[in-house]
Amino acid sequence: IPTITPASDRAIMIRFSTEISENVHEQVSYFHKILSEKYDKKISNISPAYNSLLIRLEDSVSLWRMIAKLKQLFNEDHNVTIKEKQTIKIPVCYEGEFAPDIERVSSYTRMSIEEIIHKHTKGQYLIYFIGFSPGFPYIGGMDLKLETPRIASPRINVPAGSVAIGGKQTGIYPIQSPGGWNIIGRTPLKLFDWSRLKKPALPMGGRIEFYPINKKDFHDNQV
């Protein structure tokens, strides 16, 4: 049973665990769906994270009554199982201007660029949740040998499609935005569309497979 506590006078934090794992993610995903459907008139917004859900209530809803309802819900039996995931295959050009920080990652990890590309494309990736900016996926499963600290001075504009490493994580910038992660490549795919918010290209719970392409392939596949 998760811990349920007030996060403010209009918000509730539901924490399932202190660990980050696929099993915990399944609980977050399952109850995100259940709560969105069961309490759609009472909840204005739900923000999933690695091991928690933050619920923001409508103004007319009593915080303590909702906490009581949630405790009752979580005391019921639920069959949470790991489901088959959608796999999204993403081409990435790890060359030249598309990879301005790959040399930095190489220097820090003491791996060749070829090794970095090999390890990055062999990762078993899961999208735990979306956050930071529209469509930005928080992805788990990167080989920890690729871990590299964020750059000292974040860029004001990171091009859409940039693939990067920040600490123990890898990620993709679906839209142009500021960012401080190490950019190691770019995909030609358009990964965020304001007109398709209910069917995102990178959905929470999806799996990602990266594969390398050259500059010609990048321009041939650019959307």
Walk me through this protein's architecture.
The chain is an alpha+beta fold and 223 residues long. The chain is 24% helix and 31% strand. Strands 1-2-4-3 form a 4-stranded antiparallel β-sheet, with helices on one face. It has a 4-stranded mixed β-sheet with strand order 5-13-6-7. Strand 6 and strand 7 form a beta hairpin. The radius of gyration is 19 Å and the shape is elongated. The N and C termini lie far apart (45 Å). 26% of the residues are buried. The mean pLDDT is 90.
Q: Nutshell version of this structure?
A:
By secondary structure, the chain is an alpha+beta fold. It has helices at residues 22-38, 63-75, 102-109, 113-121, 215-221; strands at residues 3-8, 11-15, 43-48, 52-57, 87-93, 125-130, 137-140, 155-158, 162-166, 169-173, 177-179, 182-186, 207-213.
